[in-house]
Amino acid sequence: xxxxxxxxxxxxxxxxxxxxxxxxxxxxxxxxxxxxxxxxxxxxxxxxxxxxxxxxxxxxxxxxxxxxxxxxxxxxxxxxxxxxxxxxxxxxxxxxxxxxxxxxxxxxxxxxxxxxxxxxxxxxxxxxxxxxxxxxxxxxxxxxxxxxxxxxxxxxxxxxxxxxxxxxxxxxxxxxxxxxxxxxxxxxxxxxxxxxxxxxxxxxxxxxxxxxxxxxxxxxxxxxxxxxxxxxxxxxxxxxxxxxxxxxxxxxxxxxxxxxxxxxxxxxxxxxxxxxxxxxxxxxxxxxxxxxxxxxxxxxxxxxxxxxxxxxxxxxxxxxxxxxxxxxxxxxxxxxxxxxxxxxxxxxxxxxxxxxxxxxxxxxxxxxxxxxxxxxxxxxxxxxxxxxxxxxxxxxxxxxxxxxxxxxxxxxxxxxxxxxxxxxxxxxxxxxxxxxxxxxxxxxxxxxxx
Length: 450
What we know:
By secondary structure, the chain is α/β, with parallel strands linked by helices. The protein has helices at about 15-25, 50-60, 65-85, 110-120, 155-160, 160-170, 220-225, 255-265, 285-300, 380-395, 400-410, 430-440; strands at about 40-45, 95, 100-105, 120-125, 130-135, 175-185, 195-200, 225-230, 230-235, 240-245, 250, 275, 280, 300-305, 325-330, 345, 350, 355-360, 365, 370-375. Helix 1 (about 15-25) crosses helix 3, helix 8 (about 255-265) packs parallel to helix 9 and helix 11 (about 400-410) crosses helix 12.
């Protein structure tokens, strides 16, 4: 679909181009100097909004299920292209990120100050925070002995509600796409054969450091969608995966933004039903990351992230209200001792977290030796939620994201302290009851009847 350039609202196109020309001359590519050594990664966006009336007209012919994503892509691309024209010829590496509505670029403090003085409607954020793989519990170690497979109705599948959805409705998440952003670790295993529909790597492969640990990628992928008949069964055995692998060590924010954007729409296919995030920040997440996660939810793609395995806190992306944060339970529906405890804090505002809790202790899944092992962690718990989300999406593909979440909230099994609490959130999802609630809405109050 050809796209006519849309100037930000309140800024005439002629004026915008004039400013860009002046800035391009003032900021033309300088000869390399010692100041280049002080360049830091920045995220640039515009305060102005794109004319949403024009955007609505342009995406009117797009199928309803993909319209929100198309509008986000159009708006974000217009903003990113406007900023790129300003930065043209600078000779630095720049990366547009339409899903976050901006551009990643390396700038020195002096260059950034001059840029903002010339164009005060630009907004800038320094994004030198580094994301890391979410560690399992306990800390990485040997895979352990090969173990015989459990019965198909393993306790974790039954507790999560996956078994009931399969037995009562035949739901396996058939054909539902789930995106995954995880560390660059091995993921080839018989139970994952044919499950990875799209894959792409982000970041510098030479920067890969740290322990190779199946609990940080292969194991949760198997819990989510793995299947070998008579040998192993995950939660959503019919789901397929779109996998963005990222540098195993310290991951620059710009690479994480690029990975999330790719997972949001890796091809011309419809977007995934959810994104399972297997990496996070040790401190507050950058605003640019929050912006791209908000775009995911607007497009109907649910960001799912573990609560983390530090019991005293929840931070990073897991603290953001845009993410659905999942804590871990043991076999007795009690909070796992290692599971992160809320609230999260975002810009000095406490955010109730986690949102839900799922099985995350002694979960059976694939290992690096091509067999299976038991493993624990909130990443395993988040994989359970991603799996039942795929099953629910198979049953209700046309429902908007918030409708499904509200149905889950209405039917949840309360755990811990009555009501929402900072250890298990709303409790344990009951997806079968949620679907029944959607199919049998309550009648209106008696006083509203004729």
